[in-house]
Amino acid sequence: MGSVWRWLTDPHIGDRLLREEDEDIVDVVHKHWVVYVVPGLFAAAGLICWMLVPFSSVQLGWAPILIGLALLLWGGFRALQRNIDRFVVTNQRVFRVHGLFNRKEATMPLSRILDITVDKPIQGRMLNYGHFTFESAAQAQGLRVIRFVGHPDARNLTIQRVVTRAGLRGRSPNVQRVD
Q1: Band of residue 59 on the pLDDT scale cut at 50, 70, 90
Q2: Which domains are delineated in the chain?
Q3: What is the pTM assigned to this prediction?
Q4: Mean pLDDT score across all residues of the chain
């Protein structure tokens, strides 16, 4: 049971690193907690349906049981789906792993990142989350929008620092500043 649970909840980020190329994780971004509100509401609605069973007629007692089970399963599935979605920043690239049963991975080297747009809707500003949009030199890309990023300003600065330290933009650590 433990290995099945780990298979459903762990995207195995460490297995995706280029260790022989000295790739190190800088940041692993989980979805903001707000993405679990709707699945939680579905699960709560499922429990409420089950609480209605004693008040149902004998002929229709199966209906709240099945509806409650469907709501619980749907809420659990959506919560697991959001839990497995990870955005990773390394010293060489950014990548996203998502998908509960069919895992998908999208990668973008730091050198391909031309611009990052951070969108913070009003509710995101209140709850401290935002959405990232990556612009790259490629026409079609697998990694474009990352939604519900917690602490988006700090995460954006982290990516900008990694890009700058890699010498891809701005002042390289090896360049002397002339005043």
Answers
A1: confident
A2: 2-31+86-165 (2.30.29), 40-79 (no CATH)
A3: 0.82
A4: 88
